[in-house]
Design a protein that fits this description.
heterodimer, A: 337 residues, alpha+beta, Lipocalin, 11-stranded antiparallel β-sheet, two-stranded antiparallel sheet, 5 helices, 13 strands, B: 268 residues, 9-stranded mixed barrel, 4 helices, 24% strand, globular
Chain lengths: 337, 268
């Protein structure tokens, strides 16, 4: 019953006509040329509101899938199966069950708005839907990172050995690029004549993007010595499309393995009242042999976003470390007897 | 002669009162307007005072951490509370003094917790106002704290939170923000001044020149204070042409402080 209700609430976003998974077929036209976005009071295309990029579409095409698109029937079957697997995570007695009840509203993606997409991968270039080859230097960086993680020990050895999201430092949805964050993949966009703000619900990350050609004058490019977790973004309008370029990453929050040399170009275009096309190209010569691009459209969702005070309520991290030390002490006491 | 001095003094008092009245009646500064006609408060703003050290008047004092010497010593400040003294209930004053004595371990700022309201506004970090008709965002550099001010569809706070639930409206050029729904975990400053979950904050952001705002705050919390009280201070625009908020993702800076004693191999 709960599931039926959820599906009824789902906002379906389909890209053009249903396409068969034929690698040779041209992708359907994604833009709706007849649509003109509403305008902000100062005349910019209005992208404001609450959006989500939650989706069951994987970033990379699964092995064994050859074409860029599923049929409607195939896509529906995949989503039903994925939603069922999310529910199965709530098997009593399992770690997943102790951690989260995925049937709670919002944790199971199918219970709120999500983006339906016939694509077999979010990656549209390279045409095989896969992240390009890692360079020799990239392999060296990945090995060094793995070694640094190994030096930190196991997950229960220290806070720093945990993943960034468990430490409440940053979550993958914040980007850039913006990506499905597994749950609460929600964003709030607010525009002024010279800035665009994108608030990511998870860990309340607000990215403030100055528009370079603003009334007050051009915004200079950022100093290369400035390095930030989310980089530094600069935006501009190309007709109906907001183009945001981000550099100056600190490399501590890799996107699919990226380094501090990552450059992200995002393109936001409203193609209907309820759909914001979102595409990005990432390049990082240190890591990948060539740039690659993905399309991860957003759909309107219901606001507002609530405060996500992750660090303040991070009892999980504290308690697991306490528990690990307690187990060690008990084991030592047992050994001493 | 004495009569003359008194008359002169009286005349000065009257003249002074007249000046104050004239100032009050002078045409107020009119803020520029956004494209939809509302006063334009967009920009990066910052307080320039010592309120985050102590909202009450305080002399300079030494650092809490010996090794930091003059770097973390407390600068003296005139205080921002109208009337000077906070109207604490006796038991609440005792708790404030206990907070003050233990501020090195109790101040939520030390742990990079969301700073609450109004403290976020006068921390030694800038914040940016991002203004649209429906929502006014107050984005703070410290801990990336964010407030959404709902200018339409006002509702009750759905749950308690660190930064509260803010409903806003315009009174002339003044943005009035009414905030409730707080938890009792945040402080007003580094001196242990505190509140309960009954906190009710009304802030008034009034443009006073192109690059300054007057920030007036009324605080109500009957669990802690005997009456409502107010604070006031100017806020200054960061006018650098390249001004922008920098990341201050301080969780990383406090992990060893919070969790270091729980390491398998304890920190040295």
């Amino acid at each position: 019953m709960r599931r039926r209700l959820a599906v009824n609430l789902t906002v379906l976003v389909t890209f053009g006509i249903a396409a068969t998974p034929d690698a040779g077929q041209a992708p359907p036209d994604t833009a709706a040329p007849s649509y003109t976005a509403p305008r902000t009071p100062d005349g910019q295309p209005d992208l404001q509101g609450f959006w989500t990029n939650a989706t069951y579409t994987p970033l990379e095409r699964a092995s064994g899938v050859t074409g860029p698109f599923y049929t409607e029937e195939e896509a529906a079957a995949r989503e039903t199966g994925a939603a069922a697997r999310e529910t199965e995570l709530t098997v009593p007695g399992t770690v997943a069950d102790v951690h989260y009840d995925f049937t709670q509203f919002g944790l199971d993606r199918s219970q709120s708005a999500y983006v339906r997409n016939l694509r077999t991968s979010l990656i549209v270039d390279p045409p095989d839907g896969r992240i390009p080859r890692v360079t020799a230097e990239g392999e060296r960086r990945l090995a060094a990172r793995a070694e640094a993680q190994r030096q930190l020990g196991g997950r229960w050895d220290s806070a720093e050995a945990n993943q960034l999201d468990d430490r409440c430092i940053i979550m993958r949805g914040a980007g850039p690029p913006l990506m499905d964050a597994a749950y609460n993949s929600n964003y709030h966009i607010v525009q002024t004549p010279d800035h665009v703000m994108i608030l990511t619900e998870m860990i309340h990350d607000a990215r403030i993007i100055p528009l370079v050609d603003r009334p007050l004058g051009r915004v200079p490019p950022p100093d290369p010595r400035l390095r930030q977790w989310m980089g530094i973004s600069r935006g501009r309008w190309e007709g109906e499309t907001l183009v945001v370029e981000t550099t100056n990453f600190n490399g501590k929050n890799p996107f699919q393995g990226s380094t501090e040399n990552l450059r992200v170009v995002e393109r936001f275009r409203r193609v209907s009242d309820d759909v914001l096309d979102y595409a990005f190209t990432v390049e990082d010569e240190t890591m990948w042999a060539r740039p690659w691009s993905a399309e991860a459209p957003m759909t309107k969702t219901v606001g507002p976003l609530f405060e996500h005070a992750c660090h303040e309520g991070n009892y999980g991290l504290y308690n697991t470390l306490v528990g690990a030390r307690l187990e060690e002490r008990r084991a030592a006491e047992a050994a001493a007897k | 002669m004495r009569h003359g001095v008194a008359a002169f003094t009286a005349a000065m008092v009257i003249a002074g009162a007249g000046l104050i009245a004239a100032a009050a009646q002078a045409p107020a500064y009119r803020a520029p307007r956004t494209a939809d006609g509302t006063p334009d408060l967009n920009g990066i703003w910052q307080a320039l005072n010592t309120a985050n050290w102590n909202i009450e008047a305080h002399p300079a004092g030494p650092s809490l951490v010996r090794e930091l010497g003059a770097i973390a010593a407390v600068p003296g400040g005139l205080g921002v509370v109208a009337g000077g003294e906070l109207p604490y209930r006796p038991e609440a004053l005792a708790k404030r003094n206990e907070n003050l004595a233990n501020r090195l371990t109790l101040d939520p700022e030390i742990k990079c917790y969301l700073p609450g309201v109004p403290r976020a506004t006068y921390m030694p970090h800038p914040f940016q106002i991002i203004q649209s008709r429906q929502h006014i965002m107050l984005v703070h550099e410290f801990a990336g704290a964010v407030r959404t001010v709902y200018m339409e569809n006002h509702t009750e706070a759905p749950a308690d939170s660190w930064m509260g639930w803010s409903n806003g409206h315009w009174e002339g050029d003044t943005l009035v923000v009414d905030t409730t729904g707080f938890n009792d975990q945040t402080w007003f400053d580094r001196a242990g001044n505190f509140h309960s979950e009954a906190l009710h904050v009304v802030e008034r952001f009034t443009p006073r020149s192109p690059d300054t705002l007057t920030y007036d705050v009324t605080i109500e919390d009957p669990n802690v204070f005997t009456r409502p009280w107010t604070m006031s201070m100017p806020l200054y625009r960061r006018v650098e042409p390249n001004a922008q908020l920098m990341e201050f993702r301080c969780v990383e800076f406090v992990e060893d402080l919070i969790y270091g004693h729980l390491r398998k191999q304890p920190s040295p």
